[in-house]
């Protein structure tokens, strides 16, 4: 159990997302925290001085899927591409797929 995530998410599942984002945004820093208001894990991608992107991984996605399924889905859904397209808008990952907030 991960206390940062309210005890809800397995570290292996969070690690899959963290590794993917770190590889896809290799010149940036990936920071994360649990977003209590959204009941989701939030990953923020920073360059040296500013936050560039926000990725929100819904609770149901993390609890319903295995680490292997998460790894496959975020690649097949093109999470990194969507994050780049979203710019400053947050990108939400749920069981239904990837959605840029505000669209």
Can you describe this structure?
This protein is an alpha+beta fold and 103 residues long. It has one domain (3-100). 37% of the residues lie in helices and 29% in strands. It has four helices and five strands. It has helices at 11-24, 59-64, 67-76, 79-86, and strands at 29-35, 40-46, 51-58, 91-94, 97-100. Strands 1-2-3-4-5 form a five-stranded mixed β-sheet. Helix 1 runs parallel beside helix 3. The radius of gyration is 12 Å and the shape is globular. Mean pLDDT is 90; it is low at 1-8.
- In total, the number of strands is 5
Sheet with the most strands: spatial strand order? 1-2-3-4-5
- The low-pLDDT segments are 1-8
Which series of helices and strands comes N to C? HEEEHHHEE
* Total domain count: 1
- Output the radius of gyration: 12 Å
Give the overall shape: globular
Largest sheet: 5 strands, mixed
Q: Provide a count of the helices.
A: 4
Broad structural category: alpha+beta
How far do the termini sit from each other?
Answer: 33 Å
Task: State mean pLDDT (0 to 100 scale).
Answer: 90
Proportion of β residues?
Answer: 25-35%
Percent range of helical residues: 25-40%
Tell me the quaternary state.
single chain
């Amino acid at each position: 159990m991960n206390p940062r995530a309210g005890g809800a998410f397995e570290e292996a599942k969070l690690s899959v997302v963290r590794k993917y984002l770190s590889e896809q945004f290799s010149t940036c820093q990936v920071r994360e925290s649990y977003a209590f208001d959204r009941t989701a894990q939030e990953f923020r991608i920073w360059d040296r001085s500013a936050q560039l992107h926000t990725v929100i991984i819904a609770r149901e996605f993390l609890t319903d899927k295995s680490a292997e399924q998460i790894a496959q889905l975020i690649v097949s859904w093109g999470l990194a591409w969507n994050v780049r397209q979203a710019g400053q808008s947050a990108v939400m990952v749920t069981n239904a797929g990837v959605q840029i907030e505000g669209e």
